[in-house]
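One-letter codes give the sequence; each number marks local geometry. A record appears below:


***
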Amino acid sequence: MPENFKELLKQDFSDLEAAVRSWQKLAKALEETQVRHRHKVTGPLHASEWQGTDSHYAFMQMETSETQLGTAQSDVTSIATILDTVYTKMKSAQDDLRRCVRTAELDGYAVDDHGNVTDSRSPGPTGNADADAQEEHQLRVTKLEGYKNDIGYSIEEASKASWEGTQLLQQIDAFNLDKDYGAQKAEEGARKVAEFAHLDEDSIPSKKDPKENAKWWSGLTEQERQSYLDAYPEKIGWLDGIPSADRDEANRKVVDVQLAEYDMKKQNGELGIRDQRHYEGLQKLQNALDKADGSRDESRQLYVLGIDTKARDGRAVVSQGNPDTARNVAVQVPGTDNDLTNVDEQIDRVDRLQQAAHDTGGESTAVVSWLGYDAPEVDGSMTTTGRADAAAGDLRSFTHGLRESHTGERAHMTVLGHSYGSTVVGDAAAHSNGIDADDVVVVGSPGMTVDHAKDLQMAPDHVWAGWAPDDMVSTIASGKTLGENPAEREFGGKVFDVDTSGHGGYWDQGSDSLANQGRIIAGIPPRPGEYRVPPQPNPPGTTGPKW
């Protein structure tokens, strides 16, 4: 790298440009190799249900290799970013230097090979020169000092970029792929590199505006996007409006790092009660990802659109199928007493919903489990709108984000809510700009925070409710503190046929309850059901409810 005026003035940066392209090419190859390894090696073996001692150790080794590929990709991307940033900064300094020299020479100054600037015009005025001559001389002296400073600044900036880049490169060992801390160390290194490249965390949009998020993301170069993914995966993974594949990549990095941290805590005996619950949830999620990665059916691939172990109960947003390309998109919001520990049950639920849609002709369907909020426990929190109020804005941002990231024709979007999840859906739909859904489906609903379907800012005949006669939530609890019962005629929506029992049977395989939800997701009218008839007032002189 040039260290002085002459070297910087004449430096040819073509070799540095070529090096940047080579490292970028290697990073891309490593990323593609990791994806192939996931879908062609570990995924099919997990899907085969291979078990036993041999499989245990084989999977450990294969998963280590897969993680190492991801760590190497991140480190190699960091190297490419460092070199590219050094090139950009030094080339800018060179351009400034050359521009300064040309301007100085046109202005009658001479610049020698060492960067010294002198006035090539006649010596300054004598003591008896008039005031105009004295003023002109002083002006040229001031200009001369300015040119000297500009030349010195250009050299200083080039030297600074070279030195800082060298220091960062010395901290990155792309071939140190230690599994226990490699992914975490790679992320820490990526953050330092991103800051060096002025891709700092503060530049990531903070407002829940999917359109602005998408605009910002699309305005970045491919390398800049990868740098943000590697440096700030926790933030990028929750950024509504950007492509689901990018969110999935970011969130899988978070899962890798978090699992490694919990593994280390477990080895050191430092795993607390909450850590243990989150650890179990992440392991269940990873197992589900491993099995789905081996599927030859792309519609059954899983996309992690949000993961958070810092929240009290943990949060997870997982899609089966790519919601950016599917013709039908459904978002399922679970209710009371759900958290990260039962993420496997939520994934099973969206699998059944997707299959139900497929069975009615909706082959191109993606279904999302949206546990992007702190669901209430079985206590007083499930009788108030507090948790729903806190979640509504996030759900609105998510559904509008899916609209923004979708490619091709507008998808048919259905938002479904079970139990308190229906309260969240209603709260989100009723306020601000709504949820932009074509259909809303609620089952076992205690209320949607509103009195009438028209309050949800959509056509009432596209608001569907399902209820089981022995579901205590939709028969007794509904209509009390969380809004009117959406399964009753007075609510103004529609009801579909339910042939299952209890509060959790709406997804029983082979049931009409499940099939009807699949029809709605696919944009097909379901089989109509009977409205719930509210209890009648007691005649004078009698006691007890009359049903």
The CA atoms of residues 426 and 448 lie 4 Å apart. The mean pLDDT is 91. The beta strands are 109-111, 117-119, 302-308, 315-320, 328-333, 365-371, 412-418, 439-443, 463-466, 494-495.
